[in-house]
Design a protein that fits this description.
Layout: H1 4-11, H2 29-45, E1 48-52, E2 58-62, E3 74-79, E4 94-97, E5 103-104, E6 111-112, E7 127-130, H3 139-157, E8 165-170, H4 184-187, E9 191-195, E10 203-204, E11 209-218, H5 234-243, E12 260-268, E13 272-281, H6 284-305, E14 310-318, H7 322-325, H8 329-341, H9 356-361, E15 369-370, E16 374-375, E17 383-385, H10 386-405
Helix pairs in contact: 1-3, 3-10, 8-10
Length: 413
């Protein structure tokens, strides 16, 4: 059997960064390459109904052990793509037995320093897979893929009893399009878990409500020598707009369940400007209030500079899956028990972002997220703990056992 480390090092060799500007699904060809590679491996270990869709969604099935067909089908899902926040090409991983202190990242001059990343201190004694400081690592989410594949092979090779297991790997999660082309009905699971980042033992079922807001500003551009009383500098109106938002409600000033306004992109000239905000909040009422705040600021500036100067368009992206998971509490109890059986202490932090699981939950597939042993995603400081990856495989196997012990049933009302 292949180890989770072997698989992980194999998968990070595929450049699968997604790209939100291509307009294709998948957004990049490398995701297709990894999808086909995984399909071949699934067939080799004995999975059935292996398929790669025209959009690079990989699905497969491990039929139930005879006599256990009545167990609700369980889905295990991870995503193929990596972030475009740092290079994902020609990754050169380092394998370090961590004894404490600072870890140099190759010859890049960058380091993993516990002064900056204090959680390193609790990983003393672990085997860490790091970057060489020039690329991201790809633990988000190739650690999750490696863990699902390793668990699947162990189940088949060791002939472990199980209900129907549905395996899925999705493209383009990092650009919010991971489930656009995913056929939930054909997948066949009644319940699922994504394995997508975070420390091993984490169980996540609360995520942000999310929207993207485009603020467009129309200025009046005339020659600066004769501009008095006429010019409206769209860039300055944009600065004023941003200054009217709560200064303490930004990503760098918030944590936990606190929401924020994130100015993600700006562009502009005197004649026109545009601001792109990400709006995030776990609380649905506060989330709605954030969208209304932008509209109120636009109305105030329009009174000052003229109607039509500022327009705001909000596009909802995903919702807080807690609304769905609350109706299926057994999914959390099964996961908690599996985490404990793997020798870990369950942790249930809120997700300050979103996952495929949030979108899938609202499409009828309740889907909490599980940690994979990866850290510092989307940058050159990304790394993973081998021991936590191995524990995450045990968590998966524990959840499979949990479905046999007490199959989850939906709550009504």
């Amino acid at each position: 059997m292949r180890t989770v480390l072997d698989r992980f090092l194999d998968y990070i060799g595929f450049d699968t960064q997604s790209n939100d500007s291509t307009g294709t699904h998948p957004s990049t060809p490398g995701q297709f390459e990894l999808a086909r590679h995984l399909a071949e491996e699934l067939e080799a270990i004995g999975a059935e109904k292996v398929r790669v869709s025209e959009h690079a969604c990989v699905t497969a099935c491990l039929p139930a052990t005879p006599g256990l067909e009545q167990i609700p089908p369980l889905g295990l899902i991870a995503h193929l793509d990596t972030s475009d926040a740092a290079s994902g090409r020609e990754i050169h991983p380092q394998i370090v037995k961590y004894t404490g202190g600072t870890i140099p990242l190759g010859k890049s001059g960058k380091t993993l320093d516990p002064a900056r990343f204090p959680f390193l201190n609790r990983l003393t004694g672990h085997t860490l897979i790091t970057t060489d400081g020039t690329t991201l690592l790809g633990a988000d989410d190739k650690a999750g893929i490696a863990e699902i594949m390793t668990a699947a092979e162990q189940i088949l090779t060791r002939n472990l009893p199980h209900g129907t297991l549905c395996i899925g790997f999705t493209p383009d999660e990092e650009i919010g399009e991971g489930t656009l082309c995913f056929d939930v009905a054909a997948f066949g699971a009644a319940y699922a878990y994504t394995l997508d980042g975070g420390a091993a033992g984490e169980i996540e079922y609360r995520n942000f409500n999310a929207a993207e807001a485009e603020v467009k500003i129309r200025g009046v551009n005339v020659h600066p020598g004769s501009a008095k009383g006429i010019m409206v500098n769209a860039q300055k109106v944009a600065f004023a707009f941003d200054a009217m938002l709560p200064a303490a409600e930004t990503p760098e000033a918030t944590d936990g369940l606190e929401g924020f306004y994130h100015l993600a992109r700006t562009s502009g000239t005197v004649g026109e400007a545009q601001l792109t905000y990400l709006l995030r909040d776990h609380d649905a009422e506060k989330f709605a209030a954030r969208k209304e705040k932008l509209r109120e600021i636009a109305a105030q500036l329009n009174r000052q500079y003229g109607e039509g100067t500022v327009t705001v368009t909000c596009r909802d992206q995903y919702r807080n899956m807690e609304e769905v998971i609350a109706r299926h509490p057994q999914l959390l109890e099964i996961a908690r028990r599996a985490v404990r059986e793997a020798g870990l202490v369950p942790s249930e932090p809120p997700i300050r972002g979103g996952t495929d699981g949030a979108l899938l939950s609202f499409r009828g597939l309740p889907c909490p997220n599980l940690g994979t042993g990866g850290y510092n995603f989307h940058g050159e400081s990304e790394f993973a703990s081998l021991e936590e990856m191995e524990r995450s495989v045990e968590v998966i196997l524990g959840i499979v056992r949990g479905f046999l012990r007490e199959p989850p049933r939906p709550m009504h009302g």
